Protein: TIM barrel protein
Organism: Solibaculum intestinale
Amino acid sequence: MARFVLTGFTDEYSPALAEQIECCKKLGLAGIDLRGVYGKNCTELTDEEAKALKSTLDQEGLKVTCMGSPLGKILITDPFEPHLELFKRTLELCKLLDVTRIRLFSFYIPKGEDPKKYRDEVMKRLRAFVDAAQGSGVALLHENEKGIYGDTADRCLDILTEMDGGMQAIFDPANFVQCGENVRTAWDKLEYFVESVHVKDATNVGFVVPAGYGVGEVDKIIRKFSAKEGLRYLTCEPHLTLFEGMKSLEQGEVQAGGRFVYPSAKDAYGAAVDALKEILIKCSFDEAKGEQGTWIR
């Protein structure tokens, strides 16, 4: 039986932890893909903050489902050693938070240069992440992202094949659209490696819109993803408003919302989750009774 777990980058709803918890309870999410909390990025938490966060979420019946880190979001020409140390620190935080998944990237390529020029260095750095995570019980999830080495399906496949089981994939339809990739072709190439889908859609001119309103074929991707047995993650990362911290996470101009306008970030996030649920219902999924954020078919 296919089972989807709905999670989200709830810092797009609010930077405040209490309101991120409200987001999960109100919108029916199983947990938080942690990115921003306590006014800082998740990789910058102290031990005390991590313990306090886990205690609060435990009391609310929630959990951190993934560390939504910016690891790998530096130029491939930037020094790597400090970044590797940040990765190792993030592994320590995963242990404190009881998190078994880290989202990461494959390094920005200098503008105008051929990514192939940097392939060996990209693989060397990603292999260092994989080696450092050995025995930790933490899965490393590579997300396709504009401007990094793994921004096309072919280069994502290159990474995942080279890592030989040490890394799985997060599939982001909107990011592929914005890179000029055919989303269904990308899925066919990467399906074997996909562990979770970031629910985000975009128009053919790159504006981010709710799932189902762009050309990212999110409904078709979810149908294909549902063919995989077992627990699978659908993570709301709608980018429909310019939330706190977004500009520091993205290179270049952010194009959020398009023709969709919302009175607040909370309204935008609610619309994004509603759009996802509409797709799930069309795909014959129902909410599992007594299991918040779990949908079954």
